[in-house]
Amino acid sequence: MRLTILGGGGFRVPLVHRALTRGRFAGLVNHLVLHDVDEMRLAGIAAVLADGSARDGAPAAAGPTVTTTTDLTAALTGADVVFAALRPGGTHGRVLDERIAMAHGLLGQETVGAGGLSYALRSVPVMRQIAATLAEIAPDAWLIDFTNPAGIVTEALAPSLGNRVIGICDSPIGLVRRAATAAGLHLAGGATGPGSLAGVDYLGINHLGWVRGLRDPAGGDDAADRLPALLADPDALFSFEEGRVFGPELLGVLGAVPNEYLFYYYFAREAVTALAGSRQTRGESIEAAQRDLYPALTTAPDPAARWEAARRAREEGYLAEARTEGEDRDEADLAGGGYEQVALSAMAALLTDEPAELIVNVRNDAAGSPAVTGLPADAVVEVPCRVDGRGAVPLRTGADPTVHQLGLLATVKAVEREVVAAVTHGDRDAALRAFALHPLIDSAHVARRVLADYEAAFPDLPRLWP
Questions:
Q1: DSSP class per residue in 443-466
Q2: How far apart are CA 61 and CA 72, in angstroms?
Q3: CA nearest to 158, candidates 401, 458, 391
Q4: What pLDDT is recorded for position 327?
Q5: Cβ neighbours for 371, distance < 8 A, ≥ 6 positions apart
Q6: How far apart, in whole angstroms, are the C-alpha atoms of residue 257 and residue 204?
Q7: Which pLDDT belongs to residue 346?
Q8: Do β-strands 165-167 and 2-6 pair in parallel, antiparallel, or remain unpaired?
Q9: Which of 140, 172, 208, 444 is exposed most, by the fewest CB atoms within 10 A?
Q10: How far, in Å, CA of 10 to CA of 12, rounded?
Q11: What are phi and psi of 82, to 5 degrees?
Q12: CA separation for the pair 441, 175 (Å, rounded)
């Protein structure tokens, strides 16, 4: 089997390679192709992979053959599965996304709010071109997308790739794993591996969802819901990250545990204040670290150790604005094993037809009727799915969000669809509507000005409009 990673010079690629050389995914892929437009990043990651394999003491045959290329056609030819993890505009593009939003008093975050819309306006055109090339060169290949914003990108690609595109994010599965553990519930295999999510009621769209129920899948429909007891137990809530971020009072009011990214909606003012008071944005911190890291990876005697130290430092700073001063992340969250496990679990199910139950981004009507009532049938939602050789299908349909949940979901989904329309039809008015409608952009005047500033910062954006 041949796996191609677009964005093969990406920082987290070694996590994918590590998972392919040991454990349940070992031997699944015999040829790994890394594609990137940046030769230095490709060389740096290749050095990490070679050094990591040598340090493991594993024979060369234990892992897949690795090749690197900057030629997209060569990368896609013969691919069985393609992972897409691109960042159009690079890390500096993220810095601009954050800083321009902050200059207008808005949230400076890479996937949520104004910065996320700017990111999407860059990602969607690139990914649409890649999807067209993939459909021509390798029409039977599966595309597993974690190019952000993953929900918007997946929705933009679904018309051309159909069910052969699946969007992934590790946030919801990580949340389910942590909340289930806190509730004393063991999900067989863990939320990232084989096991049942039949007892998990999770509903949302990418970076905007809630755990609404936790039942023992072995108990069937009659199993007691463990979530109410969890919400009533402050000690249990404070044992995991989302419980600490949102706090017992808000969680009790909501009757659900939100995805960590809902911090930016429920505590918008605090998030803007915290980010504005930071010496560096998250993007600036990553840009500074990677500026020195990548050149060193190709010359240092210990590239794998350097990369691992940088990875842990990066994980420690993740969503720092949502934690109290001095609060560290849980060790389990620092250890890795998130998005690459979800991606590889999906890939294994697609290639072997051995089903896996995962929370992924799929069309709302992938099971024939809407998984989330109140949202359009062709909208992409993020829900528990059965993944097998036919693709991903929601485990249940007709789930009713509360009015509170539907209000936020429908508003943000409307924003996402305006972004897709803006790129698909070259419609700047649709782009402006997206900025003006977003709940974290509080003024149509600000929306107009921030879009203009993004157009000035990213020359490719104005070229989208005829």
A1: -HHHHHHHHHHHHHH-TTTGGG--
A2: 26
A3: 391
A4: 53
A5: 362, 364, 365, 381, 383, 394, 396, 397, 398, 399
A6: 12
A7: 96
A8: unpaired
A9: 140
A10: 6
A11: -120, 125
A12: 27
Round to whole Å and give the CA distance between 248 and 245: 9
CB 2 within 8 A of CB 80: yes
CA dist 177 and 173 (Å) reads 6
> Looking at residue 178, what DSSP letter applies?
H
- Beta pairing, strands 356-363 & 257-258: unpaired
Region at 426 (left for phi over 0; alpha for psi -120 to 50; beta for the rest): left
By the 8 A CB rule, do 259 and 177 touch? Answer: no
193, 24 contact by CB (below 8 A): yes
The domain limits of the chain are 2-167
To which CATH superfamily is domain 2-167 assigned?
A: NAD(P)-binding Rossmann-like Domain (3.40.50.720)
Residue 34 Cα to chain centre, angstroms: 19
Backbone angles phi, psi at 401, to 5 degrees: -70, 155
Low-confidence ranges of the chain (pLDDT < 50): 59-61, 190-194, 323, 329, 331-337
Spatial distance between the Cα atoms of 120 and 88, rounded to a whole number of angstroms: 9
* Phi, psi (degrees; rounded to nearest 5) at 141: -75, 150
DSSP readout, 256-298? SEE-GGGHHHHTHHHHHHHHHTSSS-HHHHHHHHHHHHHHHHT
CB atoms within 10 A of CB 55: 11
The answer to whether the CB of 133 falls within 8 A of the CB of 72 is yes
Identity of the residue numbered 170: D
β-pairing, 257-258 vs 208-214, is antiparallel
Structure tokens at 134: 């993939």
d(CA 21, CA 7): 20
- Residue 368 CB: number of other CB atoms within 10 A? 10
Q: What is the CA radius of gyration of the chain?
A: 21
- 365, 438, 279, 305: CA torsion to nearest 10: 10
State the Cα angle at 267 between 265 and 273, rounded to 5°: 115
pLDDT of residue 190: 43
* Cis amide bond preceding 139, omega within 30: no
Q: How many residues does the chain have?
A: 466
Q: What is the pLDDT of residue 54?
A: 53
Exposure string over 68-104, b if 16+ CB within 10 A, otherwise e: bbeebeebbeebbbbbbbbbbbebebbbbbbbbbbeb
